[in-house]
Design brief:
Blueprint: E1 6-10, H1 14-21, H2 25-45, E2 50-57, H3 65-88, E3 91-96, H4 103-115, E4 122-130, H5 132-145, H6 152-156, E5 169-172, E6 191-194, H7 204-216
Parallel strand pairs: 1-2, 1-5, 2-4, 3-4, 5-6
Helix pairs in contact: 1-2, 2-3, 3-4
Length: 224
């Protein structure tokens, strides 16, 4: 049975779900938060130590300003209202991505990361304003600037996922089969599951079905 230490999820389909059910993309983003909380609880139950959620990519700035503002308001409200609960559950929160937001949100992020920094039951990595190509280029620049030998160990020191094990498993909901500039280096040997359901429709039973399937897969890592 395969050990499972780190699950990464591309939470795709919120907007489409909202249009389908409420005629509003924002309604889908709000509904998606319920799924996030359910998956967090189930991740803890399965004793998985790391959960990385793709919340907002560098490309998502192309979306309508009204939708972007709604998304960040949701995030602000989540951090204000739920960080105490996360801390009480011994959950660590880490933001990966370019933290170039409003002063209010940056302050909330700093506070949330600091408050939960010593927790160790589960680490949630929230990919926010994240793009893997930017991360890789930035890592190479730092490696070159410091005139270090080019190898995997030195390169990974400059990734935003430094000291975080690579995902064992990637799940993408929404019936879309692509990586969308997410953890391109870190997913090199991850098992990938593309799920047809939109993110708000993704239930605990679906999550556990994938976890169970993953544990039975023969993982060769290049060998036989």
């Amino acid at each position: 049975m395969n050990p499972l230490n780190h699950v990464a999820i591309i939470m795709d389909g919120n907007g489409r779900w909202g249009l389908k059910h409420k005629n509003s993309r924002n309604a889908g983003h709000k509904a998606g938060l319920i799924t996030v909380e359910n998956i967090i609880r189930e991740t803890i139950k399965n004793k998985i130590r790391y959960l990385t959620l793709y919340a907002f990519s560098t490309e998502n700035w192309r979306r309508p300003k009204k939708e972007i503002n709604y998304l960040f308001n949701l995030l602000e409200n989540f951090l204000i209202n739920r960080i105490e609960d996360l801390n009480n559950q011994n959950i660590k929160l880490k933001i990966i991505g370019d933290k170039n937001f409003s002063k209010k949100l940056n302050k909330l992020i700093f506070f949330s990361e600091k408050k939960t920094s010593k927790n160790n039951k589960l680490q949630i990595n929230l990919a926010l304003n994240y793009g893997s190509k930017f991360e890789l280029i930035n890592s190479f620049k730092k490696l070159s600037k410091n005139k270090e030998r080019i190898n995997e160990i030195n390169f990974e020191k400059y990734l935003q996922t430094k000291n975080i094990p690579d995902p064992d498993l990637l799940i993408r909901t929404g019936n879309t089969k692509r990586l969308s500039n997410f953890l391109l280096w870190q997913l090199a040997y991850s098992e990938i599951y593309f799920e047809k359901k939109l993110w708000p429709d993704f239930k605990i039973k679906d999550y556990n079905r994938i976890l169970k399937s993953f544990k039975k897969i023969k993982r060769n890592f290049g060998s036989i």
